[in-house]
Specification:
By secondary structure, the protein is of the alpha/beta class. The chain has seven helices and eleven strands.
Length: about 280
């Protein structure tokens, strides 16, 4: 690819911006700025974009709502917009600002697990792999043509986004040159099969919020980390369990004894260790 593009990033995640900027420069492109969202809820400090965490040569633009993204993008005059780790469904007018269009990195195997929490649903559904998909963006959510796709194995210790994120990122960066080559060729991407689509929406059902110790240990372990990876976006406090007559929220579990005083609990097919819990 010989043409150098001005690329605008749309993201709420500091490690994403930090890592993709040198990758794009290595591919011969010029990241020119980041559009992020002004949000009120508390977030892990390692994820938050600030003036201090952004490369100094990039503009950092805060949108108060999704309708402000379009004019902020216009100010950056991008050839291409890359979205990765952004919570808002963007209007088509914003997506049309770059002359080459807009693409997104979705952590799921589209059309499976469209929506805001695909990592959580991969665990909830008992999948063996997390997906990674570069796709064209349109006015709907995660429905545009697929440009490149891959996956990584789900490991037993994948409980925190800071563990999973770097592995997903490495897979995404391996796929990025292929995605950009298709953009350069004007390729709309492979159409998604809507009949195979599933929705990975925020958890809100009471049934999945309760732990049943009669279930297999791995199923409960997946349930706990699936809730954890919703990043506090669910309106439900979960998962909830009864332990010796006490009602607790289970935060972290392990399929093997991690030491450090973790509590052993017998499940339907064997032991599970509670690493962290909170009384309710």
């Amino acid at each position: 690819m010989t043409e150098s593009w001005r690329i605008a990033l749309v993201s709420m995640v500091q490690p994403v911006v930090e890592r993709i900027v040198p990758v794009l420069r290595g591919l011969g492109h010029e990241p020119v700025g980041v559009v992020t969202a002004r949000i009120e809820r508390e977030r892990p400090p390692d994820l938050v974009l600030t003036n201090e965490t952004l490369p100094r040569e990039l503009d950092l633009l805060f949108a108060k709502d999704k309708w402000r993204v379009e004019p902020l993008l216009r100010a950056l005059e991008p050839d291409l917009m890359i979205c990765w780790g952004f919570a808002w469904k963007l209007p088509q007018a914003a997506l049309d600002v770059p002359r080459l269009g807009s693409i997104n990195l979705h952590p799921g195997l589209l059309p499976r697990h469209r929506g805001p929490v695909p990592l959580s649903w991969a665990l909830r559904d008992g999948d063996e792999r997390f997906g990674v998909t570069w796709h064209r963006m349109d006015a709907e959510l995660d429905t545009g043509g697929i440009l490149a796709q891959g996956s990584i194995p789900i490991e037993d210790d994948d409980c925190e986004i800071m563990q999973i994120g770097p592995k997903l990122g490495a897979a995404a960066f391996r796929l990025l040159p292929r995605a950009l080559a298709r953009v350069a060729g004007g390729d709309p991407g492979d159409p998604q099969d809507d009949a195979a689509a599933t929705w990975a929406g925020h958890f809100g059902d009471d049934e999945y919020a309760r732990i049943d110790w009669a279930h297999p240990a791995r199923r409960i372990h997946d349930q706990v980390r699936a809730w954890h990876l919703t990043m506090g976006l669910s309106p439900v406090v979960a998962p909830i369990a009864e332990l010796d007559g006490e009602r607790v929220r289970v935060v972290r579990t392990s399929l093997r004894d991690p030491g450090g005083g973790a509590r052993r609990v017998e499940c339907g097919d064997g032991a599970l260790w509670i690493v962290e819990s909170e009384p309710l």
